Amino acid sequence: MARVLKRGCVVSALGLLAFSTVPSSATGSSAMITGKLTSQPIGHYEFCLAYADECRQQRGVSFDPVKLTKEIWTSIVNINSAVNMVIEPRSDFDIFGREEVWTFPDAAGDCEDYVLLKRQLLINEGVSPSALLITVARRPNGEGHAVLTVRTDRGDFILDNLTSQVRAWEQTPYKYLKRQSERHAGHWVSIKTTDMTVVGSVEKAK
């Protein structure tokens, strides 16, 4: 029930947002370079136990990046802003009394919860799950962080709860560590390096 209620709140917020054109800078972006299979974050492992359908091998879908049309870009920008506006940033410990609880947020959540809701809403908009990948990174201050990577034909873009701006991954300040495999939502692959990190940023979106 919480997922349905929150989806309705986000849809209401979307109605207040402006449409956006595809940025010209998108043509200069690139795709992340991924490597071999690596460890799955414990929070995602437990999430997959609760939501097995969200973590299956991708079948019957294209593994190509999504074509970045004006309509798709508008959905990406608006969903990023709407979720950032509706969800209150709070830590897992504040909400659940323990760390690393990945779930669809109702009224509050931390970085990975924002990602899960944004991913779900974009899938509802018709974007292939193989193009919407939970990604673990490290912030400049050393803290772990989770964002949503959208694979497009104009490069990889980042949806982040710390900003309403959707940026090419190279334009963000993060060191990217690993992300979901586009072929299996329950598997993870390295991004250049395979370092373990804790994800739990809850700063207010700008």
Topology:
Layout: H1 2-14, E1 34-38, H2 42-50, H3 70-86, E2 88-89, H4 92-96, E3 108-109, H5 111-124, E4 132-138, E5 144-152, E6 155-159, E7 167-168, E8 175-180, E9 188-191
Parallel strand pairs: 2-3
Antiparallel strand pairs: 1-9, 4-5, 4-8, 5-6, 6-7, 8-9
What spatial form do the alpha-carbon principal axes imply?
A: globular
User: Roughly what fraction of the amino acids lie in strands?
Assistant: 15-25%
Query: Treating each run of at least 4 consecutive H or I residues as one helix, how many helices?
Result: 5
Kindly report the CATH topology: C8orf32 fold
Count of individual domains: 1
Largest sheet: 7 strands, antiparallel
- At CATH's second level, what is the architecture? Roll
**What is the residue-mean pLDDT, rounded to a whole number?**
86
Order of helices and strands: HEHHEHEHEEEEEE
Radius of gyration (Å): 16 Å
User: Largest beta sheet: what is the strand line-up?
Assistant: 1-9-8-4-5-6-7
The beta-strand count equals: 9
Structural class: alpha+beta
N/C terminus separation: 29 Å
What is the percent of helical residues?
A: 25-40%
CATH class membership: Alpha Beta
Care to describe what's here?
With 206 residues, the chain is an alpha+beta fold. The chain has a single domain (2-20, 30-191), classed as C8orf32 fold. The protein is built from five helices and nine strands; from the N terminus they run αβααβαβαββββββ. The chain has helices spanning 2-14, 42-50, 70-86, 92-96, 111-124, and strands spanning 34-38, 88-89, 108-109, 132-138, 144-152, 155-159, 167-168, 175-180, 188-191. Strands 1-9-8-4-5-6-7 form a seven-stranded antiparallel sheet, with helices on one face. Helix 3 (70-86) packs antiparallel against helix 5 (111-124). It is globular, with a radius of gyration of 16 Å.
